[in-house]
Specification:
The protein is mainly alpha-helical and about 130 residues long. It is built from 7 helices and no strands. Helix 4 packs across helix 6. The protein is globular and about 45 Å long.
């Protein structure tokens, strides 16, 4: 199992354990998430791209993996995700560059990274 899938599994197991230990807290958290994810003026894909940028900016590796997967599931391309990261990098500098490396790894793990293949190289060349 690749690293990103391990992070997704860890998040799922952690949420279940937290739900058992702190059900009221998790219900409140779920209501917030549900209210943000209702259809509105901003498409869900764009909301996930924003979340990727925020995750990079706040340096949350599990959040990065989760929101990269959600963005891909909502139809975002690797290029769109990387552009979202460029905003985080512009605002956050060097640390955001470092955390964008987790975005690249998640894109590779989820088979969405095609940069080296386009140049005729191996995906492992980075």
């Amino acid at each position: 199992m690749n690293e990103s899938l391990q992070v997704i599994r860890l998040l799922q197991e952690g949420r279940q354990a937290i739900q058992e230990a702190l059900p009221g807290l998790m219900e409140g958290s779920s209501r917030i998430t549900q209210s943000v994810n209702v259809p509105g003026l901003i498409p869900h894909k764009v909301k996930e791209l924003i979340a990727v940028g925020i995750a990079v900016g706040i340096r949350c590796q599990p959040c990065i993996v989760h929101h990269v997967k959600e963005a891909l599931d909502r139809g975002a391309t690797a290029d769109e995700i990387m552009e979202a990261c460029s905003i985080a990098i512009a605002m956050g500098g060097g640390p955001s560059i470092a955390y964008t490396s987790y975005v690249v790894q998640a894109l590779k793990d989820f088979k969405a990274w095609k940069k080296e293949e386009d140049k005729g190289g191996s995906q492992d060349a980075v």
